[in-house]
Amino acid sequence: MPEPSSRSRAAQLRSARGRSASGDGVLEVAIGRQVRHYRSKLGMTVAELARQAGLSQGMLSKIENGLTSPSLGTLSALSAALNVPVTALFRRFEQQRDVTRVGAGEGLKIERSGSRAGHQYELLGHTVGKGKPFSVEPFLITISDSTDVFPLFEHAGVEFIYVLAGRLMYRHGGQVFELGPGDSLFFDASAAHGPEELLELPIRLLSVITEPHGED
Length: 216
Prior knowledge:
By secondary structure, the chain is of the alpha+beta class. It has helices at residues 6-21, 26-41, 46-53, 57-64, 72-82, and strands at residues 108-110, 119-123, 134-143, 158-172, 175-179, 184-188, 193-212.
């Protein structure tokens, strides 16, 4: 089968770009560009690569133009013919990812029940975007005042805490742990948890809470 004419190839590329712009076919376009890149780098024609990979020229043309989603077997055959790992065919895949930068001291101050007991909660980021099955919230917690009131928390999901400074006894359910700088806890947050006793102030904790959406 002859290679597509420049006119038909342009039409295919316009179709692929349209799909890419709409958010569909982005991965296919990225894979196609990589296949074409490595083929050109080796000085191979479409016919030569198609023959070595066991594909028709028409199928290879569709792959290179991002018009079809190749199977894992096809990707494996192409990578072998191009003498590159399969992962190399995904390197141009770019998809928008959530990112949040918070400068030093710029976290959002959050009022929780512990705030009234000398606890300061500084939110350092949050999960962005819809359609995710969970939310993630990292906090910097500072305890600067001694108090006899230690609020306990219970919520869905899991929590990770890492001690940056100070020392304290931390309760999780029926267990109490002594924590100091460098110590951490990872636990089921549905059990009552929170500081039991403050041993050395000020205390600074990094807390990362992951909760399923739709849970209180």
